[in-house]
Write a structure and sequence with these properties.
Blueprint (H helix, E strand, L loop, with lengths): L6 H6 L23
């Protein structure tokens, strides 16, 4: 089962007022396009 989704599909799941937590290893694993 493929658990990957597109950026557009992920963005569509974020609703107004939600908090988004971004994880990573310092600067190396951070998804900069989200931040």
């Amino acid at each position: 089962m493929d658990k990957r989704i597109t950026a557009a599909a992920a963005a569509s799941k974020i609703k107004d007022g939600m908090t988004v937590m971004v994880g990573g290893f310092l600067g190396n694993g951070t998804p900069e396009s989200i931040v």
